[in-house]
Specification:
Structural class: alpha/beta
CATH class of the largest domain: Alpha Beta
Largest sheet: 6 strands, mixed
CATH superfamily of the largest domain: Periplasmic binding protein-like II
Length: 275
Amino acid sequence: MKIKHPFKATLFSILLACGVVNAQPSLAANQTVRVGIMSGEDEDVWRAVAANAAKHGITVKVTTFSDYTQPNEALAQHDLDANSFQHKPYLDAQISARHYDIVPVGYTYVQPIGLYSRKWKSVDALPQNAAIGVPNDPSNEGRALLLLQANGVIKLRDNVGLLPTARDIASNPKHVQIKELDAGIVGRAIGDLDAAVVNTDWAIKAGIKIPQERIAQEQVPNNPYRNFIAVNAKDAQAPWVKALVDSYQQANVASSILSVYHGATLPAWEGAPQH
């Protein structure tokens, strides 16, 4: 039989009563969380997140990627604990194609996609047979086509949802040519196109002047393309997940988002400052 040492038991009780030890230590404390993000401006944002997370006892280890297909695969393979780069339509398309068991756990920001041109000053000025570049992944191509429809360039078939393709174009009065390009290339090709629909982060990387070269932009209210932190479904209720989301959804992170993206990206969580 093992007998408890009375002095040790009494000492622990005294320390507990005085608050020197915590009866319920944080399950998230002293943990390293590996997070995948896109390289560039987000690295500055996540430095602020990491500083906040350190107060929860979490060390955030960031891994950067240069294209959208890698972070979910790395998460599914457990090379990451979380990622932060995507919106729900993109994740839905990835789950449909690759059967990932990945879920969103907290909103980060929204990047209203834009139509940019260095040749024309407005959508109305686009000529007949204009060449318009769009991202070629399913969710962002759908988003681009919906933007073109909202601005009267094309009309899509009814009830196409959030993932239309060029085959869903029902009316094209200017006979615009839709050029499907990799999301990381379409912005850099803007000089060879009449216009291009480019995600905000790639527009910045491509040296596009925001908002000077933007001739149309997606609406912000009720935007379905808010980005979020995502984890494997089995981890969704883990204490470190809530701590990570709380570390992101703070005023200093909102300020960093607005600063590094020059106001072209907006914090998307409830109650977040917008300027």
